User: Fold this.
Amino acid sequence: AEQQQGLKIAASASILDPDNSSSFDGGYLEFEFVSGAESTDQLSILNANGISRSGQNVLYLLDGVSTTIGTVDATLDGVDGQGLRIDLNANASSGATQSLLRSIGYQNNSDDPSSGLTSNDRVIRMSFSDGGNTSGIEPITQAEQERIASADVTVAFTSINDAPSLSFAVSGTWNEAEPGQTATPLSFISNVSIGDVHAESFKNGFLLVELDSYNYGDVLEIADGNGYSRTGNNIYYDAGSGTAELIATIDSVETGAGRALKLNFADSSSLNDAVTSGLLEQTVYTSTNQNPASFG
Assistant:
């Protein structure tokens, strides 16, 4: 899950070597993102199964003695979306290397680890090189005898929907109209700031403006202007292209002719932070009551 501590990606993996090599000197373990990766993804060596890390050195604890079995590559260090490679040395026995494989962890500390991705899941390819080592027959060169095995593992990702942020200022005084005239609606919301670390848009969400106290005749509505327009119960937005896009509809219950105005967002990718903030600032107040202060 999002912001979970390091998760072992191959906790029960096994290394099987038909050659029964005494070590995998010159070999490596490498982990790379095949799909779904972004810069906030981290691969690390966990303190588990007798494995630990000291600087670039990877240590294996056996019978109370810690021995260096490999080093972390200077470039493929697992940090910020990079792959992770550990070059093995002569101390990297089959058991030590298997323990290392089982101690590789995945983590992501971002609040928005799936931004722009079609799938949250990460596919990681694990590759193991035996370094060309055999149990007894000396090869012509180790490089010629090197064997590499690989397998893909999927890290199923659960993203947490963090709450959006909202701030604004409210001010102004509504003036009742003279008899026979229509009162000017009051624009009373300003300096709106809406944000959501997850949302590229707020499509299919809603915006609710509710009065703390209600007097008979109070009306909340959306005023035309600044690219926003209303036709019937539909709210449109034109970013300057000359084409107005449907971005919201007025709720059938909380219509604004009462305590609350609810705008149900359309399935529109245009409903980003700025457009949604601007929409809220188009909210105006008026009253149809000729004596609005006398009713509660």
